[in-house]
Amino acid sequence: MGMFENIIIIVYLALLGYLGFVGYKQTKTSTDYLIAGRDTHPFVMAMSYGATFISTAAIVGFGGVAAWLGNSILWLAGANIFIGIFIAFVFLGNPTRKMGLKLNAHTFPEFLGKRYRSKAIQVCGGLLIILFMPLYASAVLIGGTQFIVAYFHTDYHMALLVFSIIITGYVLAGGLKGVMLTDALQGVIMFVAMALLLVMTFWALGGVESAFSKFDTVWDQTVASLVNSNLKELKPGSADFLMKLSMNWGFQGWNKMPIFLSEGWLFMVTTITMGVGIGVLAQPQLVVRFMTVKSKNEINRAVLIGGIFIFITMGVAYVIGALTNVWYFEFNDGKNALQSAGSIGKIIPHFITASMPKWFSFVFLFALISAAMSTLSSQFHTMGTAFGRDVFEQISTKQHNSMLVTRAGVILMIVISVSLAYIFDDQPAIIARSTAVFFALCASMFLPSYIGALFWKRMSAKGAIASMIVGAIASSFWLLFVHFQEAKALGVCKFVFGTNSLLSGKIIFVDALVIALPLSAIAAIVVSLATKPEDDKHIALCFNE
Amino acid sequence: MGSFDLGVGLAFWLMCASALLCVAYGLIYWNKDKEEKALDTSSWESDEAKINEEL
After folding, report:
1. Residue B30 C-alpha, separation from nearest chain A C-alpha, in angstroms
2. What pTM does this model have?
3. Which residues of B touch A307 (CB under 8 A)?
4. What distances in angstroms separate CA A247 from CA A207, A224, A429, A508, one per listed residue?
5. pLDDT digit string (tens) for A356-399?
6. C-alpha dihedral (A170, A176, A179, A184), degrees to nearest 10
7. Beta strands, E only, A329-449
8. Is the ipTM of this complex over 0.85?
9. CB of A189 within 8 A of CB of A366?
10. Under a CB-based contact definition with an 8 Å cutoff, are residues A384 and A409 in contact?
């Protein structure tokens, strides 16, 4: 490492330390620690939301998927901006903020628990976070640590320990204020790196039109010849195997949609676009951001900032991901991205190293580490609040200091997450699939209850509980026994029934969300209409009447 | 973007349109809301116990 790199690392760590200290100094009450005092600046809120939203996996993982399956993944970028930012902020943001304030809610489970006046809902929401979010956090930890190891050639366990200690420091001290301030800094780094990557890639490929016009040529010369080959004759996991698999699934080129209702179309539309695009609406660590601002104006301003941020970060990751095929074809002996890098997860890092100047590799490394740290800090904080506020304080018969209990929760959940990152270091598939389980469970369990809480006064606690139970059962069943990715990776179906999936055909490519969310919503409506409505006085308080 | 088929082209332009929608919305409603006067949070901490009691 050169002097320049050392200085940048020291400055970065010093800035993180300073922002954590600012958070610490501004944190006086549990409201400060749990929801940043409800007076966060819209820039900080929007950048924090965006940086939490986008982890290393989103840039490297989905960028690699774009290189494999092509630009049809831009539907996800559109969904991320339209649903994840516009719909979330404009339609859900202010009602969440107002109701959260009226109900004195500090966490997402507490918000639902107080809206429905049900401790069971709050504890159940907290337990879901405690049980599944550590797996999600460990996936992000493993990803971030592996980049540090690859760049600095350090020991994995040492890098994991140092990485975790740095994040623990500012989450523990600064609470959500510290988390959001550091998120904003990390979001700026990610934004700058991705904008530079866009410009430099188009520069290398001779401009926008020139770059996009070469997709057909690259596909024809590197993939089309596989049309007559048999998948069983190809080495599993090899570049040709994966490209042939994509052809069998209905993909026809990097600039084309897969065949309508083919396996590839169902995967791209239901799992990638809907599963991730809609699932994000019910992520506890994101919803709580809406309660951190003091008025609707802040949320309106954050729409602008968040929209641009996601457009540049996610949009660039996907567009450049697909374009790596063109770059490798031009500059690496006529090969496509998978043939050059070897696997989906290696494409983006390999492309950065091969195509960009060394200084940019360093900048990009910072962007990836920032993406991991911003997601992790929010996860650690959310898990800590779930443990302290939503579970421990609710089941305990004594009064406790929320800030102290939450800090203890943060430490405990970080220890669990880091331990999982140590244990599952060589089994990333289980972690990645468990993350998908968390996303699916959050959406199917929380989304109908959350939307109903905000917009349907007739929605009752029993309706919300029924919706959560049906959502949990339906999505768990689909993930464990049907969906082609999770059912196979988790192995429960194989263990019980001796087969990877109970169903066969294209249906196994349909995401759990598509099955579980409608069932969960129907349960919410039917049970709410069949049970006694909530007390008028409580509804008036919730809806500010 | 002439090389995109209809489905991918639609995704690309919807992505751009969604980003523009966010920018336009943010600019138009930058300072339109006057509600914060009714939701003054300055006494929020002192009201916390009362709200909890009501619930």
Report:
1. 5
2. 0.90
3. 18-19, 21-23, 26
4. 29, 9, 23, 18
5. 998 998 899 889 999 999 999 999 999 999 999 999 999 887 77
6. -150
7. none
8. yes
9. yes
10. yes
